[in-house]
Specification:
229 residues, 10 strands, single chain, 37% helix, 9 helices, alpha/beta, globular, Rossmann fold, four-stranded antiparallel β-sheet
Length: 229
């Protein structure tokens, strides 16, 4: 579904992502773990086109994404949920959701999203700024799903969220994958969440992958040690 080859990204003279390569399979959930400052957000921003790549390739199916603007990548099938959620606090839940639409939204799309996140149905006329952190995160994911993506990218979706809501988000991501038949990339520092949702995981250290494992062979203790270094 998504193929990243020899990707290099940086700021000014600083090289943050260094020769990173990986593939995201059809309907796969891939977790990218790493401590703060190791390049996770930089990597995701380069995939969606917020940051330009210095070199390398980002291919969605058979189409090259490098050189395309962010809105063109969204139209091609990539959706991004940023760290911190960044919903519109003065807009209602419904208005936030349709702000991500590329055109008219089918009623069935709303119904599917409300099935995934029942609280959004209850609060659809409430201002986004009046939602809890967990509810805002669910709204941010819903807004991304409105575009009917092939690949959903989430940057630390559990940050600042209470444990019970973290479990709800893990459940929702598994259901989204099953319902929409899409692939998901999620960056994370909470190992238990990663173990709950991912099919495969990488650990990013100073802009390079230093560990990779499929779910069946994933050593959670080793990942925790890498995150604690």
């Amino acid at each position: 579904m998504l193929t990243i080859s020899q990707l290099n990204v940086g700021y000014g003279q600083s090289k943050v992502i260094q020769d990173v390569s990986f593939q995201l399979g059809q309907e796969e959930i891939l977790a990218i773990m790493g401590r703060n400052g190791m390049g996770k957000t930089t990597l995701l921003k380069s995939l969606i086109g917020i940051l330009p790549t210095r070199s390398g390739s980002i291919r969605l199916s058979d189409r090259e994404m490098c050189g395309l603007d962010s809105y063109e990548r969204v139209r091609s099938g990539i959706a991004y949920v940023p760290q911190g959620r960044l919903i519109f606090p003065a807009l209602t839940v419904h208005e936030n959701m349709v702000s991500g639409a590329l055109g008219a939204v089918a009623r069935s799309t709303f119904e599917e999203i409300y099935t995934l996140f029942p609280v959004l149905r209850e609060m659809r006329n409430r201002k986004g700024g009046n939602l809890s952190g967990g509810q805002q995160q669910q709204l941010a994911i819903a807004r991304a799903l409105i575009t009917n993506p092939k690949v959903l990218i989430l940057d630390e979706p559990t940050e600042g969220i209470q444990p019970s809501i973290i479990k709800d988000i893990a459940r929702a991501l598994r259901e989204i994958r099953q319902l929409r038949k899409i692939s998901i990339i999620v960056t994370e520092q909470v190992v238990s969440f990663m173990m709950d949702v991912c099919d495969r995981a990488f650990v990013l250290e100073r802009g390079r992958f230093v560990h990779e494992a499929g779910r069946a062979n994933l050593d959670a203790d080793k990942v925790r040690k890498l995150l604690a270094v």
